[in-house]
Amino acid sequence: MSRPKIRLEQVTVRYVNGAGTRWMRRDGAEHGERIILSDIDLEIHAGEFVSFLGHSGCGKSTLLKIIAGFLKPDGGSVWIDDERVEGPQSSHVFIFQEGALFPWLTIIDNVSLALRAVRNQGERLSKAREYLELVALEGVEHHYPYMLSGGMRQRAEIARALAAQPDVLLMDEPFSGLDQLTRLNLREELLYLHVMLPSTTILFVTHDIDESLQLSNRLVILGEPPAQVKCCRTIRIPHPRTLTTPELGELRSLIHHHLGVHSSL
Length: 265
Ligand SMILES: Nc1ncnc2c1ncn2[C@@H]1O[C@H](COP(=O)(O)OP(=O)(O)O)[C@@H](O)[C@H]1O
Ligand SMILES: [Mg+2]
Prior knowledge:
Blueprint: E1 6-16, E2 33-44, E3 49-53, H1 60-68, E4 75-80, E5 83-84, E6 92-95, H2 107-113, H3 121-134, H4 150-163, E7 168-172, H5 180-196, E8 201-205, H6 209-215, E9 218-222, E10 229-234, H7 246-259
Parallel strand pairs: 3-8, 3-9, 6-7, 7-8
Antiparallel strand pairs: 1-2, 1-4, 4-5, 9-10
This protein binds adenosine-5'-diphosphate and magnesium ion.
């Protein structure tokens, strides 16, 4: 098998809860510290779409930030293309839950920012327009973010991320603030984009189990802190997927089991 795109080796993260004298506890943490992630080992291949699931507070965002290079692990290391991650890189783009468009720039100018390397302004704008078309946002390029709905803003965010031609796209609950119908539409679009850009590796944190079943090639479920990978499953079912098939039903039950959900919903 080819070399993994992303490799996590015994990644451990501790957060300090407050000031005070520190002494060691039996689990190896110091008093006042909490181990959030504990010795996480994981390999992800180029072009995979990996969904991360787990209870609130288990460390999903922390894990993504470590991979993006925003945070340094307290133990272990992260490798992308066999290079140790020491900080953020322009080819690794993060899409936040709360959105991060610049409110003082129009939509096309927001997307153009990611195309700074294109010197010719006309060319830059026409490329930005192409990315807006890709996420079905033609016609609103001269609007400011506040003039768009939440779903459209999130699409613009995705267009800007894609314009940067990332080889790793990290998405932290990107659709969580949106209504169900918009989420379903964006889910479809993300799937379409992944087909269009097969070499882009996507890491996707979600609370929505069906979203993860519909989109991903792999599910990673984290346990409670100190979190380790509780379950890692490859999904080989081709797209488009029907969520009511027995195969996906079984996977859904497995996720419920690992998350401690006992209802038959
Ligand atoms: N900067 C920080 N300092 C201290 N504790 C933090 C910090 N960031 C997150 N935490 C704590 O670490 C745990 C994991 O957080 P997070 O990665 O955001 O979880 P998730 O994304 O799975 O909900 C939570 O208990 C959270 O309160
Ligand atoms: Mg989070």
